[in-house]
Amino acid sequence: MDLFRWTIQEASAAFREGRCIPAELMASVNSRIEAVEDKIHAYVSVAGDAAVQQAASLSAGNEASPLWGVPIALKDNLATRGMRTTCSSKILESFCPPYDATVVSRLRGAGALFSGKTNLDEFAMGSSTETSYKGTTRNPWDLTRIPGGSSGGSAAAVAADACVAALGSDTGGSIRQPAAHCGIVGLKPTYGRVSRFGLVAFASSLEQIGPLTKDVTDAAILLKAIAGHDHRDSTSVNVPVPDYPSLLNGDVQDMRIGVPQEYLQVGVQREVREAIRNALDLLGAAGASIREISLPHTDYAVSTYYILATAEASSNLARYDGVKYGYRAEPVEDLLDMYRRSRAEGFGPEVKRRIMLGTYALSSGYYDAYYRKAQQVRTLIMRDFEAAFDVCDVLLAPTCPTTAFRIGEKVNDPLQMYLSDIYTISVNLAGIPGISIPCGFDGQGLPIGLQILGKHFDEATVLNAAYAYEQRTDWHGQRPAL
Amino acid sequence: MKITGKEVAYVAHLARLALSDEEIEQFTGQLDAILAYVDKLNELDTEDVEPTAHVIPMGNVVREDAVDTGLPIEEVLANAPGTQDRFFRVPRII
Lengths: 482, 94
Hints:
Chain A has 482 residues and is an alpha/beta fold. Chain A is 37% helix and 13% strand. Chain A has 2 domains: 3-251 and 435-444 and 468-477, Alpha-Beta Complex (Amidase signature (AS) enzymes); 299-375, no CATH class.
């Protein structure tokens, strides 16, 4: 029996019923990693035998926790005490955090095991993992294609059964887009739902940590485990966390689903549009009421995002100066020379490009024209969603305009790469929750993602709409031949 | 042109990045294309629109000023490229 194919709820049930112990599952996942890692390169580092030993020493009595003994993969921008955290960057190649991210300590407390740290675009800046200093992760459905990004390692690991579930981070689509391209479930929670303490900062006003899983129920389980207020992140919000798994009932009777017309226009691959239409028909037949709505400022989202995200990045990444941790160029003439050369040698081209753009947008004489202007347009984008949610409970759209593109296809054209995030980016600007679930395949056998968006802090409705679709289809059960 | 090579070199100085001449040239072209694209924001009249810095309404967040344990100094220093005793070591400043 291939234990590594289990979902969280299957593993948990097997432990409770005494059919399996965590060390057996962990060993099975490790052997799966060994078998597929040469092909997909999802991991930056693996825990290996240490995780099996940890599984064997898990204290009993905590089996009621749905994550007890379950192997989870962590994106390598989440701080793990004593486990290297590189952000897939040369500048942090040897960084070993002296503390755990809050999500990591919550998972430890729930008895979860960590299979390893997954690959990402350098500092989560990218849509393909091609900017990683550690090499490109390959899509398990077609090894010549990108897995999406920036959480491409986490998505590929879940799709290839090289972990039971994973955590990623989403700044402009970095959980949902790779989930769509790899045929799995990925959820970006509401801004403030999950503590960002210990998530290496890229764009602090936009990013959230969230689950990448084999099905919607697993996403609900993992979200419940990591959500909640944390005094170490003052932007985490102190509101009650619902018991998401128990709220899944698949009932969409009278649910009001809005379809933003701007998300199905030119540039959307024909098969993607068809898959979304089919999903709408299915949910309509299940009792939901479907209506077209408009998000008129959609066209401005990519511009707004690339001003705000790069401005925040230029500030956040100022900390990499070769003093406290990370790479230092040597020998150097003086302190300024050390800063300039450590950063020039430690960061890759995409990170430098974004630091440059952000520094420019914040520099004297340009602040009002770019940064302030983008913050104002952000307000207009938020108002679009507010108006839509006055008449809708959720919105439904493609996650991406196309299925996964080829490795190398967009690597020399940053603007084209940025435009591939066009349907995910607005969600981060507005801070609302969004999920991507599998909803079909194109003619080349590549997965298509369906995106469902909800109101602030209404992950429960988003998850239930996704669950309703999943209950009536079997896309989520499909696996790539590896 | 939205941005010149001279401006790119100045921004690189602000960002503390030692860029080669080739990088300056490459970034000038790429940043120019990106800035031309983001110019579309100027199609929108935002005169009376409040800027958004934070999506969830919240004011200042305060907590009790309580004593707590800090990070273990040895583990923190173990990540530093240069140390001496309990300090970070850097090139001479004065």
